[in-house]
Amino acid sequence: MSYEPPTPPADLATEFVNSLNESSPERLQDIARYAEALAEHKEREIRLEEKSDEDDIEDRPDDLPDDVPAKATITIKEINDNRYYYWQWRDGDKVTSKYKGPVNPDE
């Protein structure tokens, strides 16, 4: 163990470094335990989010266009006595639709 104080990371704010330098050893141990637990928690959240993103990709229908979100559903609209499939999804307060094709392919 060195007799010199440790060098803080270069990107750590000066105010934070000064606050740590003024803390007691017991307080620093508490901060270290909290920081470790917080880092593990955030890493777990990232892993869960990545897994959720992977699940969304796996659940994505094969015929879903790239510009349509996976949460979109198929609806049927009738226009001039013809029925058409549309992808439809909510984007904030707005409902967005994108043409998919006729219900009856012969139309």
The strand count comes to 3
Q: Which structural class fits the helix and strand makeup? A: alpha+beta
Number of distinct helices: 2
The topology string of helices and strands comes to HHEEE
- Strand order within the widest beta sheet: 1-2-3
**What count of structural domains?**
2
Q: Return the average pLDDT rounded to an integer.
A: 85
**CA-to-CA gap between the ends?**
81 Å
Low-confidence stretches: none
User: Which geometry do the CA atoms define?
Assistant: rod-shaped
Helix amount = 40-55%
How much beta, percentage-wise? 15-25%
Main beta sheet: 3 strands, antiparallel
State Rg.
Answer: 27 Å
InterPro entries: DUF6788 (IPR046738)
Protein name: DUF6788 domain-containing protein
